[in-house]
Amino acid sequence: MEDKDFRDDLLIADLPKLDKDMLDDIVKNPIVYNFQGMAPKMVFTEAILCYFENVTKAFKKLGISLPPHVLHFILQSERPKTEFKNIEVENRTKYRDEESWRNGTYIFKNGELTYFIGAPDYQKPSPLSISTHYKVKTNVRL
Description:
Elements (H helix, E strand, L loop, with lengths): L14 H12 L4 E7 L2 H22 L6 H9 L4 E4 L2 E6 L11 E6 L2 E7 L2 E2 L9 E7 L4
Antiparallel strand pairs: 1-7, 2-3, 3-4, 4-5, 6-7
């Protein structure tokens, strides 16, 4: 007989709140990477590389080493979730406007949100600024 998971007694309506509570807890003290410059493509490329590096670090902390092409496949997959061992990876792109920082990769271990790596989030420049600015938020630490 399998052990009962705390999620077994939850109603589907409770899941978004639980998920938001877990995410809020993780991002209270996030590491924030800022990328800013005059060349939009270069700034975005730097932000994307930072994103992939942090996802790779998170997997390594969980004892999983994936070749770059497999990692890229998982992160670019049309499937909302990928599962292996006791790890579940979810890529979210559904948030808009003020909530867009929540887009990114959610890594769960044994059903609990362990790591969050935010997708590069475009920051709207001030009227006086002509540079491009992206942020990547994460809770992955060295």
